[in-house]
Design brief:
By secondary structure, the chain is mainly beta. It is built from 2 helices and 30 strands.
């Protein structure tokens, strides 16, 4: 599988694959300076194609779920590909994660990838042009996703990397400590579809306003028996990180900033149980978690959610910034 390596001046490294504009490796040191790859993935293109895990992928056109694969825009009804039972997930069975993106520029610290999506692809209106940039800058990894369209459409691209700060294949993330700059989340039904409600996190297993281990947050919460697959409503972008994640054993810490209004935390549910990983690893439930910054799931059908509509002349711009250190 073709990959491109980028590196910071301080020695942080990441590997990017054109297939799915995918983040396949990130190497960071622990408190003793020992490097480990902290993102889940596979060793071959065939494995990425065979397993519906979305490891590291750029997902779209609309990532996350749309109930019944249906939405109305400007009085026109659109029926999307339904690839998760009766519902639409991550752009359909041939979404952005299945495209071979074109590498249009690269240097030691940056790679730029581009792809197109035709009108009618997976049921979406509008011909779209997309670009993803991975770049190290001042020891931080930046991911920038942009898109334009020639007709009204919806756009909600996400990066679907799974992180385990102990190192990929090195146990579960249940003892990772997490803090989220969010006082609210969007509940889901049995099919993991947002109900349209926005609920306060206080007094629940969704309250990460202060650092808290995933294990302690989930204890006694029946709805979290299979872990998290939920969206948090982030505070306004600012100096405070949207998400802070820390592994107390290795000391590795990740901080994430974004311009998006939500973040989906998915803790390797039943889809990842078991799945072959990199370097002989086998991933099971809780082997990693995603930090999918995004518009709220199902927003095309919930008018009070932040809009995902993209119109001609507008530019969709989605920014993520990761800082890695060890304590």
């Amino acid at each position: 599988m073709q990959t491109i390596e980028i590196e910071s001046t301080g020695g942080l490294r990441a590997m990017i694959a054109p297939y799915g504009a995918r983040l396949v490796q990130v190497w960071t040191p622990d408190r003793d300076g020992v490097l480990a790859d902290i993102v889940l993935g596979h060793d071959s293109l065939q494995a990425y194609q065979s397993h519906p895990t979305y490891f590291g992928a750029t997902c779209g056109r609309y990532a996350n779920r749309i109930a019944a694969g249906h939405f109305d825009l400007d009085g026109i009804a659109y029926q999307l590909d339904r690839n998760e039972g009766p519902n639409h997930l991550h752009g359909g069975h041939a979404g952005f994660d299945r495209k071979m993106w074109l590498v249009v520029d690269r240097n030691a610290a940056q790679v730029i990838l581009q792809a197109n999506a035709a009108a009618g692809e997976m049921g979406y209106p509008g011909n779209c042009k997309m670009q993803v940039i991975y770049r190290f800058e001042a020891e931080r990894l930046h991911i920038e996703m942009t898109a334009s369209t020639d007709a009204p459409t919806v756009m909600n691209m996400v990066n679907h990397a799974y992180f385990n700060l102990a190192g990929q294949g090195n146990g579960s993330v249940l003892d990772h400590e997490m803090q989220i700059d969010a006082g609210f989340y969007t509940p889901v039904d049995a099919a993991l579809l947002t109900t349209g409600e926005v609920r306060a996190v206080v007094g629940t297993g969704f309250d990460f306003t202060a650092p808290r281990s995933l294990r302690s947050a989930m204890q006694g919460q029946a709805e979290l028996a299979n872990g998290y697959d939920h969206n948090w409503c982030l505070g306004a972008p600012g100096q405070a990180a949207a998400v802070t994640l820390r592994d107390p054993n290795s000391g590795r810490r990740l901080r994430l900033w974004t311009n998006e209004p939500g973040v989906q935390i998915y803790t390797c549910g039943q889809m990842i149980n078991p799945v072959p990983g990199k370097a002989g690893a086998v991933y099971r439930q809780f082997a990693g978690l995603t930090l999918e910054t995004q518009k709220f799931p199902g927003s095309p059908n919930h008018a009070h959610f932040p809009s995902a509509v993209l119109r001609p002349g507008q530019v969709y711009q989605h920014r993520m910034e990761f800082a890695f250190d060890a304590q």
